[in-house]
What we know:
The chain is α/β, with parallel strands linked by helices. The protein has helices spanning 4-11, 17-28, 30-34, 38-44, 49-58, 64-76, 92-113, 116-128, 141-153, 164-172, 190-201, 239-259, 261-276; strands spanning 131-136, 158-161, 178-183, 205-211, 223-227. It holds the Pfam family SIS.
Amino acid sequence: MENALARIRTSLPQMSKIATRVAEYVLAHPRDVVGMSITELADAVDASEGSVINFCRGIGLSGFQQLKLSLAQEIVQPVQFIHEDLDRDDATGTVCRKVFHSGIQALSDTLSVLDPAALAQAVETIRAARRVEIYGIGSSAPIAEDTHYRMLRIGLDARVVIDSHVQAISASRCTSDVAVLTISHSGATNETVASTRLAREAGAKTIVITNFGRSPIQAYADTVLFTMARETRFRTEAMASRIAQLCVIDALIAALALADYDRSTDALRQTFDVLSIKRF
Length: 280
């Protein structure tokens, strides 16, 4: 299990008071925690052993031993944290380095939290559906539109909705044979949370792509595919989060195509021929 420290940093704003105490201690003393028992850590942060276990499970780990193993791995092979915020005095070359490294780190971190079983479940949900509806608002809208294009290319019946009013109407009209894919970095955008809730209440199967940690939209998701991209002062919902979302979509489309290889290759061939008239 990789990136326990990154998981903690990403989840910290949504943690309870007790979990926050555990998190801040682990972040400040990772080497010490590796040598501690669960009782010693609980005493150090004035919490119960159960609270420590709940903290570990809240960041996607099975328990305290897995936390220690992950911390030990990071201490032996330290990760260079490159989530540096931009500074007003940064030279152009420094800006380029920080932005590119942030994208690279987001991809590495996302790979560590993306659950292959959840991706497989999303594939089966989409394959079983008569139609796929794709929702995204704001910076997630271009990702939703790209997902729509990619699904059409492999022969799926897909629709994309990026207007919040149309989303609400469309979601309320869903049926049990519809799959809804919602893309929301924060998982807390009112419009997409409401649309996902309406779709699920109407009987649709819901898939959500959102950043790692707890968020309101997860309460209405049958399947969650996590990204992990850290926001900074000047880069809220920046390209790093969209790069991570696009890579998750890429993996989803590839898995869908491979699951129905013959149909997908035929659809790709037909759409390539159609698009060829657009080229000289």
